[in-house]
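Notes from hallway chat w/ T.B., transcribed later so I don't forget. T.B. wanted the structure written out for a chain they're using in a teaching module, and asked if we could keep both sequence and structure tokens in one place. Agreed to drop them here.
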Amino acid sequence: MRFRPLLALALAFCLTFIATPSKVSAAFVLGEERGNAKFAQTVNTGKAGECSTLPAGSNGSISADGKIKDLCMQPTDVSVKVAGSKRQKADFVPAKIISPRFNSSIGEVYGDLSGGKFTAKGGLDFALFTVMGPGGEEFPLVFSAKELVATSSGKSIEPGTEFNGTTFVPSYRTGDFLDPKSRAKDTGVDYAQGLVALGGDDEDLARENVKQDLSGNGVITLSIDSVDANTNQFSGTFVAIQPSDNDLGSKDPTDIKIEGRISGRKA
């Protein structure tokens, strides 16, 4: 009786090796079983976050009414707005994405298109990443296409069409995020015990203690440079200016300029 558990364990161990295939089927890894025709062309290539482009000279035109789907926005350049001085006004200076480097795109965004006005309804419409500005300072932000509303002046989408609008930028932190002193908006302690001596009227202390879910808004321009009327696809570039993280109200956000490529198609 006492040997039964040991025998059961030995039997399970043997069955594991018998049931395990000697090699993984190449058809499973690269074939249609993955449910995505593009899988074989993108797996292990680092291109999964890239927006598609149309061939040069795609000068078609499609109606600016209906629905847009598969809108993709891929950042390629970022800039941080630095404070001005007596000799120089505030301006954007080049920065770089440091985390994650290859997963900062927005994709599968869809919405309604009516009379040249695009209203986003959903999709993978935000991405969290961090950029490094001058002097090594880091700026986390939410690159967002949430509640995107952008309008063009024409009644069709063709090379040269521009959509200008706004986006909603949610808070980078959630209400349950604990700072290093266990303070949070919805959980944790109300204040840092070791800082009580500074006094409750200290403004900097109050900003650190009282966490706020502060969102923001951004502006965006979508510029179309190629259109394929046969497939209803388009591609181009975008420029967006959005606020960085405010650390739940404890610091002032910084404007970040994000530039890159777009692609999409009309449903």
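Follow-up for T.B.: Residues 191 and 209 are 5 Å apart (CA to CA). Might be a good example for the class.
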